[in-house]
Amino acid sequence: MNTISKLKFSSSILKKAKEFGADLVGIADVDELKESPSHTAAPKISPVEVGQREGDLEPGEAAWPEGGKSVIVTAISHPEDKPELDWWHGKHSPPGNQKLVTVIKELIKWINNNYEEVETHYIPYHVEKGGIFLKDAAVMAGLGCIGRNNLLVSPEYGPRVRLRAMIVDVELPPTGPITFDPCSDCEEYCLEKCPQNSFGSIIYDREEIGQERLPGRIGDYSRFKCNDQMEKNIETAEEKDEKVLYEPSGEMVQLLKYCRNCEFSCPIGKE
Ligand code: B12
């Protein structure tokens, strides 16, 4: 593909992703992403339970698709007044995630139908199953920055977005990063609202991890404490046993609502 065709392809991708339902979309470079803070830190940070099973990749190991050159990152807004987008329905993933999967699948189908020469790669959610670190990809694609709450904070929706990505084998111009840092003069409401005090102390050292950019920016985000809260959310869901009809299959399913205090307390994107 020549430069002009690449530019046309890239702008069509950005347009189509929105037509298929993405609220935000951008493009990042695969080689740059491989060197991003999460990808370089992950092998040095022990895993928390994220469904890792025998046969899965080790922390920090990645299964980059051969020939993959550009990552297309999509985001869907998850506002506080639509909490159901983030609720697990029994074993079925949250509606917001299902919507993201549909957007990516539609985009892959559209590329395959219109650009036969382009190889597309569906990227799974879990890193240990071949996924990528989506927040880093989103920052590099210009969707926002990593906030003090350790989440991607977008100018439009704050941290209240969910992400998903795909890869193509064409080198496209990256759409980011952008200059945006709402946390530098913020009163850090997100840190106070964490029920587990997950940002209570520095646990990752710049020397030890060998880089400047750390979880929670300064190394004070504890994935273990955060994960404890999510375990509590599972217990609460079982105790409450709140059931709803899951329309696609017609079965009654239990709702599971994970903590989102670090998102809801963030003022960015609320006006
Ligand atoms: C495993 C996982 C978890 C684990 C561990 C989380 C962790 N951060 O370690 C647990 C179960 C605890 C968890 C909790 C939550 N998660 Co989670 N999780 C993931 C998953 C699958 C991988 C994340 C991971 O392991 N990161 C690796 C560790 C090493 O990195 P890290 O802690 O993020 O720290 C790095 C960054 O901060 C980065 N960084 C710092 N500064 C800078 C600057 C720049 C320029 C760049 C590029 C990077 C960068 O460097 C750090 C490493 O040194 C991703 C999906 C995915 N495939 O990416 C979702 C994901 C990150 N989770 C998400 C969410 C929403 C949550 C929760 C709010 C729970 C919920 N209701 O869903 C909490 C909030 C956690 C928080 N405040 O960070 C969203 C975040 C959306 C957003 N706006 O950013 C994601 C992207 C999934 C999605 N569906 O979109 N999660």
UniProtKB/TrEMBL annotation:
Species annotation: Acetohalobium arabaticum (strain ATCC 49924 / DSM 5501 / Z-7288)
Q: Which superkingdom?
A: Bacteria
What lineage, starting at the top, does this entry show?
A: Bacteria, Bacillati, Bacillota, Clostridia, Halanaerobiales
Record-given protein name: Epoxyqueuosine reductase
